[in-house]
Amino acid sequence: DTGAAQFVPEGKDWAALRSAAAGCRGCDLYRDASQTVFGEGPVPAKLMMVGECPGDREDTEGHVFVGPAGRLLDKALDAAGIDRAKTYLTNAVKHFRFVERGKRRIHQTPRRGEVVACFPWLREEIRVVEPRLVVVLGAVAAKAVLGPSFKLTEHRGEVLEHDGLRVGVTVHPSSVVRAEDFRESFDAFVADLVAVQKAVA
Ligand code: URA
Ligand code: SF4
Questions:
Q1: Cβ partners under 8 Å of residue 55, min gap 6
Q2: Atom 7 (ligand 1): residue with closest C-alpha?
């Protein structure tokens, strides 16, 4: 349980990374989750998007962004003129974190220690995908890539340079799903996506 690094094969391609990640025990989250949900999409890809961690549906199906947050993301990508099929989608943390309430599994935000433990997989995905822009969706992904003191609200819609990487900042689609003023939140999310993707246009 001392991080993913010991499970990451050195200098391997995407397929080898994905198979190795299936056996990762770098933190406690593998114990209760169904499976590792690795990132997916074209390799290489100009655009990479990083979410938080798989949800209930992703955990069951083994694919990223196939639940409610994924549907919202699909609509926003459409509205922003971004092709999901050309985008590499992944998460900061590769296992579902949840608590059980009766028959329901309620998503829990991953802890900092889990984000740090899982980062070697994201680092390797960035190496093999070679994105021109990495869009971080929400605070967990933003802090995973930009550091723990990063303040999302001060930088949303911006493109920053970090460790030789161009990083576009916006909110997580789940926050839009839950928003009281849905229309306004959705439009602001789409506006961020339009703004940051200019960096790869
Ligand atoms: N939320 C995420 O951050 N990622 C997913 O894959 C699904 C929901
Ligand atoms: Fe490994 Fe990441 Fe899963 Fe933890 S969450 S077991 S570090 S793949």
A1: 67, 68, 69, 96, 107, 174
A2: 65
> For a pocket test of ligand 1, which of 58, 122, 152 has the largest count of ligand atoms closer than 8 A to its C-beta?
58
122 CA to middle of ligand 1, Å? Answer: 14
The verdict on the CB of residue 140 being under 6 Å from ligand 2 is no
Measured between alpha carbons, how far is 200 from 103 in angstroms, rounded to an integer?
44
**What's 78's domain CATH number?**
3.40.470.10
Query: In angstroms, rounded to a whole number, what is the distance separating the alpha carbons of residues 84 and 198?
Result: 16
Q: Which domain holds residue 138?
A: 4-197
Which residue, 98, 124, 130, 132, is CA-closest to 28? 98
Q: Report the atom number in ligand 1 closest to the C-alpha of 69.
A: 8
The ligand placed nearest to the CA atom of residue 123 is 2
Residues 166 and 75: their CA atoms lie apart, in Å, by 24
Closest ligand to Cα 57: 1
pTM: 0.97
Q: At CA 59, angle to CA 78 and CA 123, rounded to 5?
A: 75
Q: How many domains does the chain have?
A: 1
Q: Tell me: the pLDDT tens digits for 125-162?
A: 999 999 999 999 999 999 999 999 999 999 999 999 99
Best probe residue, ligand 1, of 50, 65, 95 (max atoms within 8 Å of C-beta): 65
Task: Using DSSP bridges, classify how beta strands 104-107 and 98-101 pair: parallel, antiparallel or unpaired.
Answer: antiparallel
